[in-house]
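Annex B. Sample input.
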Amino acid sequence: MNFDITLAFDTAEYLNPQLYLLTNTLKDKLPEDTIVHIVTNREENDDVIQHMKNALPLKIWYNDGTKTSHLESRCRYMFNCFEVETNKPWLIKMESDMLILKHLSEFDNILEEQLDLVMEPENRKIFSDVQEKRLWRRMYKNMGVETPSIQIQYRENKEYGLPLFGTGIICVKSNLIRTINDRWILQGVVILIFTILNEEIYKFRTMNRNFYNNLNIL
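Annex B, continued. Sample output.
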């Protein structure tokens, strides 16, 4: 299954070691024809950008970050990661602090044609049942969506709970990029995707621990 990769990062210097490491572990593990899209507000002569250009099949999208500047999280620039265009069926969002230790062809085992999204469940249930009823219901109400009837299994403790996804890896069918850009919002360190919360027609699956072990993503 053909896919491209996207990363979004700003000028924060603490990201530099992460980006060097990610680049060095990624450069020999990309499937043929995969392009790495970089969304950034860094200048093209930036040392990290130059290193990535020399090591990876890169396409750079300059973005000043205005769209997410009102958010308080230090990770807010990450939410520009889907502001790209690709002709591949899938776009995979990664974070800068990952180390890729095996070939990314492992994604072929989870990116199925009939799916629209493949996402990373949170490690564990972070709210008690009482908190979940109070906090989630209030949050959904503020967002104007109904509380989902579906539940997902979290990665580490195998508990079930309301849809709660991490931001490490997000796989999106490319024809949904515009919808995702328009409708996803930040809630702490997780993402909530309206197409899932509304239980619309989009089909999704979650990644389990076996997938991470096979791919050796740290």
